[in-house]
## 1
Amino acid sequence: MFVREPLQLLKIAVSCWTNTFVNAKNDTSKKNCKNNRKTMPEGQKVDSFKFTVQPFDDDYTGRLSWSVLGKHVLACAENHAGARGFDRLTLNGHRFLWVLSRMSFDMITWPKLGEEYTISTWICRYYRYFTDRCFDIRDANGNIIGYVFTIWAMIDETTRKPQVLEELFGHTFDPYIETERYCSVQPFSRIRLDNSFCLHNRPTYYSDIDENNHVNSIRYIEFILDTFPKQLFSTHQVSHLEIAYNSESYCGDQLGIWVKESATDKYHIVVKKNIDDKENQQTGETVCHCAVTFKPLIRQEKIK
Amino acid sequence: MFVREPLQLLKIAVSCWTNTFVNAKNDTSKKNCKNNRKTMPEGQKVDSFKFTVQPFDDDYTGRLSWSVLGKHVLACAENHAGARGFDRLTLNGHRFLWVLSRMSFDMITWPKLGEEYTISTWICRYYRYFTDRCFDIRDANGNIIGYVFTIWAMIDETTRKPQVLEELFGHTFDPYIETERYCSVQPFSRIRLDNSFCLHNRPTYYSDIDENNHVNSIRYIEFILDTFPKQLFSTHQVSHLEIAYNSESYCGDQLGIWVKESATDKYHIVVKKNIDDKENQQTGETVCHCAVTFKPLIRQEKIK
């Protein structure tokens, strides 16, 4: 399996601060972290990355697309962790890497074509197998336009088993934890789809696969939103979306998507792979659960 | 139909120079162009935009993905034109906008995760209905790693008919033409697929549609590459890809993809929409023609 080398990652972390990913803070003091792979900015727990919605970063309504926002959020997480030396670990010959377990988005408004926005990220806690990473998204004036809350586990690359984080990091993980900045944390929904049927089937292809060799986490969000009528996005925006990842899917897997309205404008979705009976939810392995809330646009925006 | 306003476009053009899209030149002198919508840097015909391959900008092999490269190329074109006031025109109450007619990529090497690259773009000529726009792509050391050549037409937004460019722009278009910089121009292939069969079918969804309300030009490239086995990208890279756009497709269209090997590692592809007979090429409307050349990787790279 392909794993990026520490030196290459350091290069990414440094270059991101001078280009697309502009770190909003300028604290350049450094100290070595325990695993001695990289250096970290001392005392800086939050990193901020500035973006502009470029042509083709938007969807057909002119709003930032899920694809671009989602991948930027993941890249911010990787760059934040990489700059501090804990994007992945090698201990006693074992490699450990982060996997995304759950993610929720609460969006107040969406940045539109040509608008600037800043994503800030930090870790708010870790506990046994998991760590919580928060993000806030601000417009060019510094106003909050969205929050993202994520839960990650660190797994052994070979056994794929989650690891007890305290045992991996000891006390050296504590200096990275930011507890004072407001983080949107909501209990995740209990997603049930009794008596629903498979709405949608689609295979996965080369272009769906990322460098972890499985379907990119954000692609599932696109697959799920693609089950709704395109026209819905002209009158509504997604105000809340949460997704829990259960298992990985790979190039060539056939995904089945179950959708059920749980309340007005609220939907529960389950994605399964390699189902052999479209009518029967019992077949196939669950890839992810998702809950989506649409909110009607208050002022009719300039949308086709 | 949703059309971005000039002021919004100016904001895009300006903001791109200070963020993701970093203009490599600093000539800030301005003069008004004839249509008086915006200002342009005097005498500056080439714009350069700097990027880093961020996490999730790459495909599973760690190379910059087609999706990201292609959309960056289109965004560079739009930003270059927008900064000079000819990204679109409004004359006598008619709106005119650019549509991409043909595009070819010649890639020597692909930037990889964490590497910097710069895309430069300029217009090399215009003639009756068309204009040729060139791009070169350089690595962090300034070495050429690829060329892109494109042909565009300006159409009336209502009638969708191409316009005679001299009549729209008069002499004011001439100062933008750069003829001295090397541009990769090759005659486009004659693409024939006699006796082939439809290899692949896929519908189009919300996430495939861009702000022009049709399937994004780069998405077709992804659809086409998705017809090849994923493993091929571990041993080969795409060295040449050309695509000619015949008609637009929309959300919900069913696309059929015909593929035929024209020589070793060279393929001809036709994409049609809404075919009613998989065996029969005569049905359905042609959306685009494409030719792809794969090149074996010389040094076995670190790929899964």
## 2
Amino acid sequence: MQHLVPLDNLVAALSRLPGIGRRTAERMAMALVQDSKGLMRILANALLEADDEIASCERCGNVTLSAVNPCELCTRHRRDAHILCVVESPADIMKIEESGGFQGRYHALMGRLSPMHGTGAADLRVDQLLARIADEKITEVLIALGTDVESDATASYLKEILSTREVRVSRIAFGLPSGSAIEYSDAATLAKAISGRQKFD
Amino acid sequence: MQHLVPLDNLVAALSRLPGIGRRTAERMAMALVQDSKGLMRILANALLEADDEIASCERCGNVTLSAVNPCELCTRHRRDAHILCVVESPADIMKIEESGGFQGRYHALMGRLSPMHGTGAADLRVDQLLARIADEKITEVLIALGTDVESDATASYLKEILSTREVRVSRIAFGLPSGSAIEYSDAATLAKAISGRQKFD
């Protein structure tokens, strides 16, 4: 790259986006400075607008409009207010909402236990979870974390903490993904599907 | 995605970046709104700064600081002012500069002939090229375009137009990439390497 300071700064900022390496950031920056449709200003304004108007829900941690806090999912009356689905991040809330499979409230931990990245229990929104269980008379906590080692450790940690509370703790099922065949499933998935088998009636 | 207007706008703006699909834009937007290090504002400021301070060189079309126009490559005295390297875009100028293989001036066409995308000769900086050949007493035009069909058509078009001018027209060589083996080369590359063979002395 040619060394124009504003271009270098733009590449540096773009490189900080998730999944964007240096080369991709350079290509993006070049496309932006050559763009004739005002994309730089459109993107800058969208960023400033989002920065001003989007906040974290003080209750569940979901993204929400600054003016709507607690978020809509925390206050909608049609939803079951006594079951809490614990997820890692707001992105997970969106995926579960898209699935249409859950009608309760959410609680985002904002991370998972990760000794490698220095994330301990105190960095997660666990105290808030315990407070909500008491305040909101929660009867069931559904743990919706993935199957990797860190998510498993986080799930186990939550189960232990919650064992002293008057609350049912469940975890989403692991098994064959929808539309898949036994023949093409990997061993770990099949083993989980078998150990997690359910009564067929 | 949840429908928060500022979030939708951010996804829409990010989707317009080259190579960024809807899903990637959504992931980026979520990472941005959850980021705690002010990345949204840093990126917005970098975009506004670049928009203010970066311009297109009025002579060669390269990116340059608004305050340095014509660009540095057009005015540096150590460079050969009589050979013009014709490229598609400023990004190509950067790649050739990185290679260190060229010491003349550049001229970016800002595109290539593409009936499919509605780009004709009038959309390229061809008139400017002809004017420069006369004004700057250019003795050689080096066409540095790729090997795809559109680049080939553009190169042929330039050769024809330039055939009436008092200027030598050359084209970069096509052949085996550096460090490659005959065994692993594709047929088209090998054929070009053979037809473009050079005296070995």
